[in-house]
Structures are given as C-alpha cells and as structure tokens.
Specification:
It comes from Bradyrhizobium sediminis. This is JmjC domain-containing protein. The chain has helices at about 10-15, 35-45, 75-85, 95-100, 100-115, 170-180, 235-250, 265-275, 280-290; strands spanning about 25, 50-55, 65-70, 90, 125-130, 135-140, 145-155, 155-160, 195-200, 205, 215-220, 225-230, 290-295, 305. The chain folds into 2 domains: about 10-230, Jelly Rolls (Sandwich); about 235-285, no CATH class. It is globular and about 55 Å long. It has a 10-stranded mixed sheet. Strands 6-11-8-9 form a 4-stranded antiparallel sheet, with no helix packed on it. It is built from 9 helices and 14 strands. By secondary structure, the chain is α+β, with helices and mostly antiparallel strands. The chain binds fe (ii) ion.
Length: about 300
C-alpha cells in the first residue's frame, strides 16, 4: 500500500483472510475533513429525501422497536443533536451517488483491496453514512451484497456470526431478496457464543464473509460510521437465485433445491426474476413491510412526532 493509502496496516494475512473470515483493518478516513461534524451537518441539509432512512430503535434495555421517520425542517446540527439525545439511527444511503467526494474515497479503498486480494476484482460499489445515538442498536440481520463497516466517530460493539445455518438460512436470504427487509431474521441469544465480537473504534474497519449475520450495539457514544457495500457478477447471480427461489416458495409452496449460479436452472430463474421483479404482488408485499410513521420533534431534541398512519 502507498503512503497516502486509505488502508494503513494491510498485511498478507488480510489478503488470505478477506472474504473467508471476519477481519479488522486500520484506515485513516476518520481524519478526513469529509467526516467532520460541519461537513456532515451540511451534507444532511442537502440530502435528497429518497436517499435517507431515519429509524427509531429500542435502546439496549428496552423492547424491540424499528420505526421509520423523517427529519422535517431541522438544520443538520439539530438533526445530529436529536440523534445524540434519542435512540435514532440515520442512514445517508448512496452517499457515493449523492456526493462525488465520497465516491472518490470509497473507489480508492476498493482499488487498494483489489490490488492485494487475489481474485477480487473491482466490484460495483456504494456506501452509506450512518449517524446513530449512544444507545442505538442494529438488530440481527444479513445483507445480500458484500459489506464492510468503517468506524469514524464513537465506539460500537459488532457481533459477526457464521454465514451458515442455523445463523443464516437460504429462506432468510430469499425473504431479504424478495421483500427488501433485513431485520426479521430468527435470532437466539445462544448464537452470541458463536459470534466474533469486535469493539470498533475510529480508524478501524470490519469486513466479513458474504451474508454473515451481524448485529451492532453502540457503546454509549454518538457513532458515525460508513458502510461499504459491493456487488460483483457472482453476488448479483446469487441475488437472482434468492429472489426466484423465494418467489417459488411463497407463491407455490415449493422449496427449490438448487442455489447454482450457472447452468440451465439458473438461466430459467434469471428469466423469471426479470419478468416478476416488479410484479404487483412484489410491490404490494414490499409496501406492507415499509412505512414512514414519525418525524423529528422541532422543539425537543431526540423526541419524535407520530405521523398519521397511511391506509
Ligand atoms: Fe448490515
């Protein structure tokens, strides 16, 4: 790695482990002005509504809550203050499309990895910035794309589980591909005995094997992190298989056995997936699982105001 590299402590063991085991790496993005509070406050103010999610979660002690909301007319600073005072979680999705400065650093990061991991070619990639409350958490889930987590401000505990049953099953991946909702996966506390647990600090980054389930607890500080997400041809094909297998199971009660990403069965699934990915059934099922139902209170930082339920 060169002197101005984003990744600052890469060694050959990382080249061998990448994608096969969870690994913790060192980076220098926490020192970049792109992630200062002032820059982020301005970014929030200009962020297109369709590209962010504001989620209220339960605190670590309380029951499970997962609601979507809006930050209304608050300034970027006030949004960050609200997050500092509440149990909220703001995801500025696709920051790499919204602002080219972030695309440049994330592309550089992937170029550095592609240069040192045999067989890892430059994938399609995106990134999102997560700003979350001191007691916020992200529940147990898997993601379909390849994923990494870059810690910029604050501390969080990340549990990474094996990417195999019972921790993640084909049915769970199929439901994510079909409905686009990642947080309904079965989870039991004893799973934690099989997790790799990291307390992540600014300047550290995690990467884990494809589809490995994970959950996150903030360690009593406001957290700013960036998730990187990438897709190559194999991952794209797996997503098509997950989608079609899920559709066949939900609509016809038939469990497809093949998860092949090449050959005639795969090709048939690819055609089915293209035909049905925007069908009325899919749109209805997805809509039923997603809604925006609060906005931030203008006067009490961290509080929320319920929005009337849409029909
Ligand atoms: Fe995730």
């Amino acid at each position: 790695m060169s002197k101005d590299a984003v990744l600052t402590s890469w060694d050959e063991t990382h080249s061998s482990l990448w994608g096969n085991m969870p690994i913790r790496l060192a980076h220098n993005l926490h020192k970049s002005p792109l992630f200062s509070m002032d820059t982020l406050a301005r970014l929030i103010e200009q962020y297109p509504r369709e590209h962010y999610n504001l989620v209220q979660t339960g605190s670590r002690e309380s029951r499970r809550v997962w609601r979507e909301g809006d930050f209304g007319n608050l300034s970027g600073r006030r949004v960050i203050d609200a997050i500092a005072a509440g149990t909220l979680w703001l995801n500025l999705r696709n920051v790499t499309d919204v602002d080219q400065r972030y695309r440049a650093v994330v592309t550089k990061l992937f170029e550095e990895i592609a240069a040192v991991v045999p067989g890892f070619e430059m994938p399609d990639h995106t990134a999102g910035i997560l700003i979350s409350s001191p007691k916020a958490q992200v529940y147990y889930h898997s993601d379909l794309p390849g994923q990494g987590l870059i810690q910029l401000v604050g501390r969080k505990r990340v549990y990474v589980y094996p990417a195999t049953p019972p921790f993640v099953t084909p049915e769970s991946l199929e439901d994510i591909a079909l409905f686009g909702v990642e947080v309904d996966m079965p989870y039991a506390e004893w799973y934690d005995r099989h997790a790799v647990v990291y307390d992540l600090e600014p300047g550290q980054m995690l990467h884990w094997p494809l589809n490995a389930p994970h959950r996150v607890e903030n360690l009593d500080t406001v957290n700013i992190s960036m998730t990187i997400s990438y897709t190559d041809e194999a991952i794209r094909r797996l997503q098509m298989v997950n989608f079609t297998n899920g559709l066949i199971r939900h609509r016809f009660g038939y469990r497809a056995k093949s998860r092949a990403i090449a050959g005639p069965v795969f090709l048939a699934k690819r055609i089915l997936q293209k035909l049905l990915r925007n069908s009325a059934w899919i749109r209805r099922e997805r809509k039923a699982r997603q809604s925006v139902d609060f906005r931030l209170d203008d006067h009490r930082p961290g509080d929320i105001v319920d929005l009337p339920r849409a029909a």
